[in-house]
Every structure is written in structure tokens, then in C-alpha cells.
Fold this sequence. Notes:
The complex is a heterotrimer. By secondary structure, chain A is of the alpha/beta class. By secondary structure, chain B is α+β, with helices and mostly antiparallel strands. Chain B has a domain at about 50-155: Alpha-Beta Plaits (2-Layer Sandwich). Chain B is rod-shaped, with a radius of gyration of 28 Å. The N and C termini of chain B lie far apart (about 100 Å). The mean pLDDT of chain B is about 85. The termini of chain C are far apart. Chain C is globular. The chains are: A alpha/beta, B alpha+beta, C alpha/beta. The interface between A and C is medium-sized, with 35 and 32 residues.
Amino acid sequence: MAGFVHLTIDGQGIxxxxxxxxxxxxxxxxxxIAHFCYHPKLKPDANCRMCLVEIExxxxxxxxxSTPAAEGxxxxxxxxxxxxxxxxxxxxxxxxxxLDCPECDQGGECQxxxxxxxxxxxxxxxxxxxxxxxxxYFGPLIEKEMNxxxxxxxxxxxxxxxxxxxxxxxIDRGTMTQIGGFAHHELDxxxxxxxxxxxxxxxxxxxxxxxxYRPWQVKKTETICNYCGDGCELTLESINNxxxxxxxxxxxxxxxxxxxxxxxxxxxxxxxxxxxTRPMIRRGNHRLQITWKGAVESAVxxxxxxxxxxxxxxxxGVISAHCTxxxxxxxxxxxRQGIGTPHVDSSTxxxxxxxxxxxxxxxxxxxxxxxxxxxxxxxxxxxxxxxxETNPIAALKVKEAVRKHNATLIAVxxxxxxxxPFRSHLPxxxxxxxxxxxxxxxxxxxxLTKALLENPVLSEGDFSPLFLEQVTKSVALFSFEEIHAxxxxxxxxxxxxxxxxxxxxxxxxxxxxAITGSEEGYINVVRLAHLAILAKQVGRPGTxxxxxxxxxxxxGAIAMGGLPEYLPGxxxxxxxxxxxxxxxxxxxxxxxxxxxxxxxxxxxSLPQKNVxxxxxxxxxLICQDLFLSETAAIAHVVFPAVSFAEKEGRxxxxxxxxxxxxxxxxxxxxAKTDLEIFSxxxxxxxxxxxxxxxxxxxxxxxxxxxxxxxxxxxxxxxxTDSAExxxxxxxxxxxxxxxxxxxxxxxxxxxxxxxxxxVGQALFHSGRxxxxxxxxxxxxxxxxxxxxxSDSDRMGVEEGEQVTLRAGSGTVCLPVKTSLKxxxxxxxxxxxxxxxVKRLLPLAFDPTTxxxxxxxGRVTVSKQKIS
Amino acid sequence: xxxxxxxxxxxxxxxxKGLGVTVKHxxxxxxxxxxxxxxxxxLPEGYRGVIVHLRYDDLTEKCVGCSLCEAACPSHCITVVxxxxxxxxxxxxxxxxxxxxxKCVFCGFxxxxxxxxxxxxxxxxxxxxxxxxxxIMDKEAMLALGDRYFxxxxxxxxxxxxxxxxxxxxxxxxxxTAKQEQQA
Amino acid sequence: MVSYEKILTKNMDTPGYMGxxxxxxxxxxxxxxxxxxxxxxxxxxxxxxxxxxxGRGGAGFPTGVKWSFIPKTHVGQRYLCCNADESxxxxxxxxxxxxxxxxxxxxxxxxxxxxxxxxxxxxxxRGEFDLGAKIIESAIQEAYQAKFFGKNLxxxxxxxxxxxxxxxxxxxxxxxxxxxxxxEGKRGKPRTKPPFPAVHGLYQAPTVVNNVxxxxxxxxIINRGAEWYASIGTPKSPGTRIFSVSGHVKRPGNYEVPLxxxxxxxxxxxAGGIRNDKAxxxxxxxxxxxxxxxxxxxxxxxxxxxxAQIGSMLGSGGVTVMDEETxxxxxxxxxxxxxxxxxxxxxxxxxxxxxxxxxxxxxxxRGTGRASDLDLLETLCRRIExxxxxxxxxxxxxxxxxxxxxxKEEYVAHIEGRGCPFQPNVELVMAH
Lengths: 867, 184, 432
């Protein structure tokens, strides 16, 4: 549909792409046309009638938002006729609009205000009373003031077209048309805040920042969100060193201006009152607040003593993948070069490392697909049914591909096709939905691969015989009947899905925590890579694989060498380092004497393991965190660190896109950035190091200096490999012997009281930090258990009633929430609140990567007796 | 030179005339000096003294915390921290309002900018003080000054009553918000 | 009184005629459908084009031309929608056609679907037509049983499924795009045109929307030829038309007459003149959306062009007659109340404008009008006219603008006399 058309706008000749709406063409010609309902993200609705223009040879005025530019058009945007019409529309809009601009939060950035100054007479011809809507309670986070509404329906259309949530609609008709949830109900949606951002007037505003600011007072800082691996650009708006609101700029960043609930309402954690503000050391059972100098000195002195007595290998360090690239680089430098220990790990060990090491092994790179590829794909194979909750913005790209560009979605997950009302759900959009039993991912991949290999048309291709033979052998262990029994998916369904994926012009494979964070994670990533190779959906432009990360800098943490396997830039390390679980074991054995934890809290993340005992054997435990976490509470030294809003640096998102993080507010209290703390520690260690040991410099002016060093050390750490390079690497890989363990078949549930329990991320939270944001805790503040209505009916449990989950000797009582999303016979519990529920789950470790798996298990459920 | 002119010249008539004025003022005119602070001048209409806050007749403050005065102020002497009224949810007020009189140039732009006529120029000009801090006025001080100079108050507008009724109704249904949790 | 040949209402005059399939077949029903299925579709469109049949729903667009707009190269589903959402105040012709002789409409649907290649036809019937819906439902069943609808009709390989869809009581759903939205299960709101339904209609597929009366005419055109049909009425507006005459006449009702007879003949001959032999004051010639006419226009022929020339429209054929005792301001107010209530709320001028016009009219009627209100009304109407999404905006200002034009002195009397000279102390409330 390429091609350009020439037209004249206000006497000025202009060339635009054909299909461009006139309103955009006029903008290019320098004429801004007033509008309300038009928005570049949405299909034109032409309901506000504000953007009327006069087109020669057309009798009526036309709406410029819905009229595409055509060859030879002569358009007048400011003729008398146009002006009169616009004045008329404006007078109607203002006729009922209340004059509460001084109180309205939109005042100052309101389109109605702006355009009213251009287009309206100052006197109203009306003397009757304005229409007044009854005030409605619209939910805890979004404020609805219908008197201000101009009925442009942008919010409704955004909710439908972009979010696929459909929580908003217009109700009543005529002048009394208003926006609302179904039948005047309180809003219960994904709370992405998109409706607030897209509202041209003050009809929908944020309850959370209500009346706290005026738009011209805020200081805006463009930075990157830290709640998941999507890497969304967001604007933190602060007054007097307090973040009062977040927003996003249309069309910018990897998110192109869309945010999710965590990005929009999750800023409350930044300036939370429980933040650590001063360094602390432990004396006996007390924690003492001391100066930075004292804390660093005592930490370094203790470290030095341990290194001298037990050698550098007795020190270990784990850093959170929420830190910036510079910080992670400096941390591993501090440990590897400053102290000399190989034991460095990061929180990517909880799953994402599977994706990176697996893909890296097969393809030589892990940056295989970008969001542009997802949007442009014609077939999407998604092994992440929870994607709309864990990675909402990446899920938006999938929705865009499916809803706007009619891509075929193949969803393989343990969710039902139904969803809760007013929540988006990828299986609902899927053309082929393979609803597998919980934990049957590996067999589902095997099934798909088998279906692909058995189809003579699809399996054609230039594959190395060794590779084909090995893969065929690995899938031949199971017949389709066995796979059907274990996954619940028939051979026919596998064949259809495999045919659709292999037949794609631009196929993209997406997988998330269901693969990486669950049993057989590493090998499943390799299996998926094989599937993509066999389907020929990798190594060509537009195709690829996207691994979803739950942490904002998971990719960066690995690229910066924040794990024992790799040095910065994916160059392999000597392999002597312990992984996080390995370190904990070594602590218990007394091999590791000092542990440096940065934003890491193993007491919470691995409750099944006897972490408490392991940590108590340490001579030195340094914790660097925002809040006094469970682990920080028992640490010898606690350094107060700062959140993403208080520091400079770079995050690398799950696509491998490096993006700048900027400081929006000053650190709380005496807290320092991780970078400063590492520099201080490094300098102290270097100055006290024994003679003869070459001192490593930790003297950096700022994060830029660190970044320059990174770029000098790992020049190609962040370059996307070309499609040819990927193909070449695959060719080399295919010549090697591949070790593929057979998939594990999960046992069937024995009785109806037995349930498959899945613990995972909920939409409204991400890790622990989000539970400090008041906006998010309003939506979800304590653990619940999601249960399919058929199960709750069968057990006679009402919504909100407590049930007891039991596994072995452990029991947990949780309130029930019914959800159509979870399969009958399965339960879902958000991981953010209750530690106890994790204790019910078995803990297993990946044989290759050592990733701890503890998200799935089997529990028996009983209704709690009312005492 | 004629006789008249000559006689004027010879008898210093101009000087005598001038002295006459002096003598007249010396003995007959009233003194123009005012005995400030015992005596005070009446100020002209529209005199722009210290800016004050006004109230409605039921003593609720008029200010809605819109910060337009802050935006209009050429010398940046006004700071407004807006927020929700703790006593009347959903009403915008100035949680803090600080007027730095030491910086104020008494231009009255803020009074003009105020959309609810909450500000007024009072006739107060005696701000000399030994303590400069006392010249940084908060909202209470400005309200007190307003009460002193503007005892005749405007009637409380109807829309506030309607709103209050609405708020009471909403309070009855609970109206839980994240904001209240944040403040708590 | 000259009597004209009736086409659509012919059977209804037969005593005892119930409109069942056997009865309809006995009068030659479905022969046109059988004939049509043997012709190539393009030929049918050609015949209808030649006959000059124009849409009977309101706009009077040539039916054959509309059918030919369906993209011939389009592969995939096409739809026909029969607009039976007759909600125009003062119009009740489709209701009679549906209730008394539904099969001629169904036969028309069959022929039209075949002509445009639609395998699914929807009949969107007004929600209030409870009886009509039942009658159509049973008529469709009869047609299915007689194999007029279904698969491989009469061995031609043509499939047709006919679905009855009942509206939920919104006037705006009579607008073709709002009707499509409503069938799709959405809120009945008109779409922005272009794209027209012929390209992107129901479920984004090419769609033709025709009125009941239009479709009912099709079988007769096929059976008796385009020339025969073109010979009735005027050259530009051929055929007969059912006019629904109501108001202050002696014999209100539906009258099927050739297009082009004068208003005078319509009112004084067909409908028997004004009730109680009072003087005529105003006529609405084409349903509530049409502009008011005065006795001076009585000799205008009732065809699309002539009525349009004098500033009104033939519209849906609902002729409302008002005698000398009718207050024109009240008449306009009454219509505006209807339009205010029915405005869908999609676009600004219509949504906001209807309430303000109504409020100004109310204050004039109440006696609190001001001299400036007449200009204000005119300005308000001009601000709505021509800038709305659908024709509703033009429709709602027509009564006000035309009464202002023809009966300005009455408005002035209301304002100067501080009340209605016809009915003082009138109660007026805005019904929200």
C-alpha cells in the first residue's frame, strides 16, 4: 500500500503517504486542526465533529480524522465555513461543560481548554442550567467526573481496540450519554490508566494523584519502568522531590506510550516511608544506624579478615536484576577483580538464565526477536498464557498483531479460553488454543515437534541429518496417544498448530516463566529452539524467539556477567563459580563465609530451603536493599540503596534494548545508589589490599564513566547478530551431538480434592517492591487463591471464604476468588504476599543451570470449618 | 527704563512678595507633616497592600488551591501546595499556601488571576519588623489578615452546598480510595 | 375520484386475505423469484436500474444503482439487510406491508439477495412490532418449507438464509449504519461514511440495506418489466408509493398512489379533506424529519424532486396534516422532544444541540422567550445542519427551521404575548 499522494492544504502543496488521514497531513503542513476524538492509536470515530475541514468539490464539510488524503485534494482548514462550524461545535461542547478548571486536574493540559481559546466566543448563548450527572463511585483509583466529559469515547475505544479489556462503554443516550462500566458498576478492570491518559479533558483522572499537582509545576523525567522486562519508557512527574504521577509520552519508547497498572499506579514505592535511609550494622541482637564511612569500613575490615583466613573463594555475591547494567558490571568487577572470587550470581537464576543460556547455546545470540517482529508477525506461537499479567506491554504487541493485523495466535498454556470479565487474556484471542494440563509444557513441545516432523511437507528443508536424527529420536519416545493422555491435546490439534506455525511467513515464538521458571526449564528452551529451527521460523528477518523476563534488567544482568557462567559480554567464565543455590549450600558447608546480597532476599524467594540455617553460619552478611527485607533483618551490615527513580544508568529489556534510566528525585535520607556503594567498597578494598596485588580502580565520576568502561571491555555485547550469523551458528550447532533428556510425564491427580497449585505473578504486582505501592495494594493487598467456579461450587465455597491448602505437613489458609481463567482442578496463588504457600511446594533444581523450581505442586484443599 | 520698573528694582519688590508668601505660610498655614504613627492617611481606593485570603460567610476558605496565583506571580513569592480537603473529600484546597512578603512587589496579578476571588489586596502596609521570618506568611496568617480587613463576606456559593451533600452521600457508601490509604 | 392501480396493497383489499404463503402464491407470488433465479444476477440489477425504482426509506436513492455498488470482485460473504425499523413519527406503511402481506417483502429479499450475491439476509424489525415479528417469523418458516429459502434454491445452486432480528427500541437504528451496528450486537450508533455499507457493511462485508417497501416492489418489476414500472408515476420518480396520511384529516390511513400526484389530491381527495372542514395550516410531507409545508405548496406534485425543490423531502412517506388550530411552536417542540429523546449521543452537534434547541423552544412556549431567541434558534440549527455523522442532525433541525421560515409570526406572538396563544399554561419538562 505504499505510494505517495500530493495534495494542497491551505495553499501549501504537500506530499504524504497514501492513506494518511487529513488531520495528520495537515499537521505536516503546519496546520493543527482542533480535535477531541481523534487519536493516532485508535480507529477514527469522527464523533466530536471538531476537525471539520473544507475540501474543494465536496459539498459538505468533512471530518479530517476519517478522510484519507487523496491525490489532488484541495483542503482548507481555516476558511470561514470551517471556522463557523468549529465555533458551533465548540459552543455545544462548552455549553454543558462545568467551569471548574481551577479545580480540575487536567487544567493546564486540557485539549478543551486549549482549543476553546482558539475557537470559541467568550459568551455563551445559553442561560439554562447545565446538565448535571449524578456522581458515581468508579473505583479506588480512577475518578470519573462525567460533567466534564465531551463523549469523544477515546477511553472506550482505547480499552477495546488497544487493551482488549472492554471495561468501559457508553451508557444512556443523547445529552445524558456517559462513560461507565457495565450497568453503572464499579470499575474492575486491569487499571492500566490508559483511559486517564487518553482522556482529552478531566472526565477521567487519577484518584491516586488527585489535586496533588498542576501540570506546569511538575518536573518530568523520562526513565524506564522497573516492574518487568518489557522495558517501558515512562515519565515520572515530581514536585518537591516527590513523585506525584507517572505518564508516558505517545509513541515513545518500546511501549509506544502504553503503560500497565504497575507503570501507571506503582510509583508509590519510590518514596515509601519504610525505605531504609541510613546504613546499619548489627551488634548482637540490635541494629545500629551508623555513618556510611563506619559501615563501609566495618564491612571491608570483616571481608578482608575472611579473605585472609579463608581465601577469596569464601566470598560470594548475588545481585538483583533490578539494578542497572553499570551497577551489575561494577558488582561483578568488585567480586571478581576486587576480591577475586568467582562466586557471582544474580536473581536471573530464578529462571531467566535458562532462556539465555539455552538460546545462546543454539543460536549464539539471544536477541532474536523484537517487538516490531511481534507486531509484524503473521503467526505467533505463545507459550505464555500469563503474559497479559506478567508482561502486559509485550502482550499488547501480541494483541496488536492479532487484532489489528489479523495474525494467527497459537497459545499453549494451562489456562482456559475463557477469561474473567474486563481482563484481557491471550487464549481468548487464539485461533489455536492448546489448553494443556498443568506442568505438561515439555510434552506439548514434544507433541508439536513430533507433529512437525511427521508432516512430510513441513519437515522438508535443509537440515543436517545428524540434527534431524537426534531430534526425531528424542520425540519418538512417546506416541501421540501417550502425549494426549499427559497433555490433554490430540494429535490433530498438534498437527494444526504445527502446520500453522511452520507455514508462517513471519513466525515469532514467545515463551515466559511457564517455560523458564518451571521444571525442565533449560531443556524446554532448547526444545523450543529446535522447534523454531525445524519450522524455519528463525534466522530470517521478521521471525524469531522472544523470551519474556520478569525483571527489568534480566538480560543486562547476564550480559554484564552477573552470573558464574559468563563474564561480561557473554564470554564464558572458567566455571568455578557457584550459582545462588550452590552458594547457599556452600554457606551451609561453611565453605562460603561472607555473602554480599544486593536487592536479593533468599529467605523469601526460597522458603523451602533451609536458608536461615545457611545464612546464620556466615561470618559476614552484607545486604543492600531499599527496604528492611527478611534477609536484611539478619544481616551484619545493611546498606540503604535507592530505587530506579533515584539513579542514573541503563536497563536492558528482554529484547536486548539498552535504555537510559534517569534520576527523577533525590535519594531518600542518606541512601546511596548501588554504584556509589560499590565504588566506596571497591576503593576501600583496593586501598587495604596487600602489596603486590594489583589494585583495581573503582574511581568513577558517574554511571557514564562505568558505561564507557563497559563499552571498551565488551564492544559487541549489545549488538544484534544478523540473521546470517544466526543461521551460521545454527548450522554449526546442528553438526554437534545434542543431549536431550526425555520429558518427564507428570502423574495424574488421584482424587477430586487434589489440586494442581501454581504460584506466580499477578497483574497488579511484581516481586516485592510493588507491594509497597499504595495504588497497587488497593487492588490486591493479600494472598488469595484463584479457583475455577466449578470447583468452588463442587466444594461449596463462596467467594471470599477461606480454604485450607495442605501438602505434606504444611497447611495454609487463604480466601478464595473464583476465576474462569484457571482450569478446573488447578489453583493459582500470587507469589507476592504469603511465604507459607511456597513452603507447600516441592523444590527442585535444574540439572544444567541449577535454577530452583518451586512454582508448582500438588495440594489437597478442604473447606475451612467456621469456628 | 520707566519709573515703575525702576521703583521695583530699587525697593526689592519681588523679594518682599516672596517673603510675603513665606510669612503667610509661617503664621497662617496648617502644617502638612502627618504625625505618623499617631496619625494615618486615608488610603486611596484600590490601594495594593499585603495580599490576604478571604472566606465565605460560613467561614470556609475560598481558596481552591489552583496555583494560578503562583503561576501569575512575577517575583515567585507565592508557593501553593494543593491537595484534597481532609474535611470535605474531593474538594481541592491549598494544603499549604506561603506568601513571601519580602519578595512581593505588590503588583496584584495574583488577585486578578484568582478564579474564585479568594485573594484580595488589603490596605495593610505596615510590615516593618525585626524578624524577617514573620514576613513569610502562611495561609492562616493571610486568612487572619483577611478577616481583619474584609469583614463583609460573600455568600457561600450553591455549588459547594450541593457538593457537600454529595460528599456526605458518598461517605455513607464508604468511598474507599487508595489516596486515603496513602494519607493514613 | 380517480382510482389508481394498486400494486403492493392490491391483495390486501381482497376480503379474508391473510398473507399466508398459499394465498400469496395464488396471486402469482414467488413466480418472480423463480424467474429471477434463472437470470444472471447482473441482468436483475439492470432491470431494477432501468425501472428507476428509488429507495422508499427516506433518501430516495436509486435501488439498482445501490445494488451495483457492491464490489463485483469481492470474494466472500455479502449481506442484504431489510430495514423494517419503521420508527419515523407519522409513518406506518411498512407495518401494514409486514402484517398483511409479508411474502412480497420476502420474495423481494430473495431476488435482491440473488442479485447482489448475498447468502445471508437480515430483516431488522422494529422492537415494538411484536405482531409483525411473529408474522414474519412464520412467513419465513413457510418460505423455508416451500424451499424458497435454504440451500440450493430451485436447483440454481443459490443458498439463502434469512434471519429476523428484532430491534430494541431506538429510532436511530433505522439509519442504515446504526442498523448494521445493532445487528452486530453493538450499541446502535451510526458509522462514519465513507466507507459506505456497500463496501464495508455488516461485519465489514459488502452489504445492501433496503427498505421493506423498496424490496416489496422488486418482484413486480421482475414480473412485469422495467418499462411497465417506469411508466407509472413521473419519469424521475417512477412507481407507486404508499403514503401514510395522518393528522387532522377525515380519513387517515395508508394510500398507495403513483408518485407525482399533488398534495392537494392526496389530502382532499384520498384522505377526504380536513377534519371538521377547518382550514389547512401546515403539512409535513415525509415523516417527522421533513420540513413543514404550507397551504401555498398544495399544488406541488409529490415526487422526490418537486418536494425537494420547495425545501422539504418526500422522506418516508408519512404525511402529517395540521389544521388552523395547531400551534406551530408546539408542533416543533413536540417533534424536538422526540428527537432529543432519540439522539444517540454519538456526535457533538446532535447530542448537545438537541437539548439546547429544546430548551429554547420550551422557554418560548412557556412564555419566557426573548426577542433574540429566534436568531439563536436559527444559529443553533445552522450549527447542527450538515455537520453530524448521520442524517439525524439534518432531520432534527428541519421542523424548527421550516416553522421559523413559514410561521415566524407565531414565534413572535409567543414571545411578545408571553405564552402560547393556542394553549396557555402548557406543562413542559425536559425528560432526561
